[in-house]
Amino acid sequence: MGQLVPKISFQNKKLRNMRTWIHHATIVNEGRKFVGSVVIENEKIAEILENGQTPTSPCDKEIDATGCYLLPGVIDDHVHFRDPGLTHKADMATETAAAAAGGVTSFMDMPNCNPQTTTLEALDNKFADAARKCLVNYSFYFGATNNNADQLAALDKTHVCGVKLFMGASTGNMLVDRMETLKRIFSEAGMLIATHCEDQNIIRQNTELFKQKYGEDPDISCHPLIRSEEACYRSSSLAIQLAKETGARLHVLHVSTARELELFEDRPLGEKRITSEACVSHLFFCDEDYKTLGARIKCNPSIKTKQDRDALRQALATNRIDVIGTDHAPHLLSEKAGGALKAVSGMPTLQFSLISIMELVREGVLTMEQLVQKMCHAPAELFQIQGRGFIRTGYQADLVLVNPNKEWTVTPECIQSKCGWSPMEGQRFHAQVEKTFVNGSLVYDNGQLHKEVRGQALTFRRAL
User: Residue ranges of the Amidohydrolase-related domain (predicted)?
Assistant: First the structure.
């Protein structure tokens, strides 16, 4: 990344010396749940109050949050906003609107757009575009290829969230499959490497077998058998081996199998150099859902068995899974037509990620404190994001107010993603996001988006 793009924050300029008091909320933060208040002053959290305390000076606006949770804004470490070049299905403006409506205040976007984010020029252009379009905070991965390892040393590691490495072919065909290149990237990246792990040789062999048996486009139920458990485990094992050999900082994305969980340590995040992410899609769906949702839930790695899903859910209460992301990947429904080979992979889930995981809280899979750890605190700690991810005095006021007792059903009319659909359509949820604040600005308020708000570029402390 070259010159840092100046922050553009139109609404924040209107909030100079403004104080907002959010009171009587149930605050969930840093392992605690308590009734209290937060005062926002300009962009930052000015006061955190409990035991009936009142603000130290008058406030311009009061919000009664009785009955609602007040959480740090969700940080999603894994999205595909399709911008630039694929904006017929999504763009930064529409997808950050979906983020805001879902309580997501920061995101990290992947490089498989058009042009791919595999040069310093493309990366700089993406940051400049984001400053103009994004309603929430942003950063971007630099995409590794078989031919661009020389550029890794030039990355601004305080503003680029990480290097994305496709060790399995997926949408965009950015596969890195040369062992000498893989070793060089792991040795020289000098920052977090986020990997998509699927063994391409196993997938290729399975594809040929299933085509011989079922024709050119086998049924969607074959998808988890083609992109199999073994393909995931073999590739994740290789990534971890390379990380251990080189001392690289590795983050394995979208773990999808129970078997892969054996590869990760159940230790506190701060003690690990190899970490893992589980995605909402693999936590919410299983292979039984192909019968009703078909290719709508086709993604890479594939949605696998109920046993795999349940093992991933159980791991949320441990330190084997460090963060929850989405792999939000919009496509037009017309592009989802077909079976295991012809339908494109990816689904839009960003707007419903927080409330989907709140359903798991309702079911007793994890606690609200654990949800906040996996979706807010841990991403901030894992990526070393400055001033975000926690409700702390002096931190940026990225906050979400969510009603945990408001039942509603997802309809197409409420979907903010440009593609206009979601696999969550028809799903009845028991919680609803009411307000989302980004850098102290109210960007989402009970169904209304304030589209003049602009997020900020994330900054990172880098101590590898």
Answer: 69-443
Torsion of CA 115, 118, 119, 124, to 10 degrees: 70
> Distances from the Cα of 334 to the Cαs of 86, 342, 420, in angstroms?
15, 11, 12
pLDDT of residue 174: 83
Instruction: Enter the pTM of the model.
Output: 0.95
CB 235 within 8 Å of CB 168 = yes
41-71 tens-digit pLDDT: 999 999 999 999 999 999 999 999 999 999 9
Residue 15 above 50 pLDDT? no
Q: Which residue(s) pair with 432 in the sheet?
A: 403
- Is the pLDDT at 332 greater than 90, yes or no? yes
With H, G, I as helix, E, B as strand and everything else as coil, classify residue 370: helix
Rg (CA), the chain: 21
CA–CA dist 176, 367 (Å, integer): 38
Second CATH level (architecture) for the domain 1-385+396-458: Alpha-Beta Barrel (3.20)
What does the alpha-carbon distance between residue 280 and residue 228 come to, in Å, rounded to a whole number? 19
Whole-number Å distance between alpha carbons of 353 and 254: 14
Instruction: Look at residue 323 and give its three-state secondary structure.
Output: strand
What are the beta bridge partners of residue 438? 441
**Residues 6 or more apart whose Cβ sits within 8 Å of residue 176:** 144, 145, 146, 165, 166, 167, 182, 185
Q: What angle do CA 320, 324, 326 make, to 5 degrees?
A: 140
To which residue do tokens 């304030």 refer?
450
CA distances in angstroms from 452 to 13, 87, 100, listed in the order given: 11, 20, 13
Neighbour-count burial of 447, counting CB atoms closer than 10 A to its CB (0-12 exposed, 13-18 middle, 19+ buried): exposed
Query: Is the backbone of residue 85 left (phi > 0), alpha (psi -120 to 50) or beta?
Result: left
Tell me: the pLDDT tens digits for 199-208?
Answer: 999 999 999 9
Structure tokens at 78: 């894994």
Q: Would you kindly state where each structural domain of the chain is located, as residue ranges? A: 1-385+396-458
Q: Are strands 408-409 and 428-429 parallel, antiparallel or unpaired?
A: antiparallel
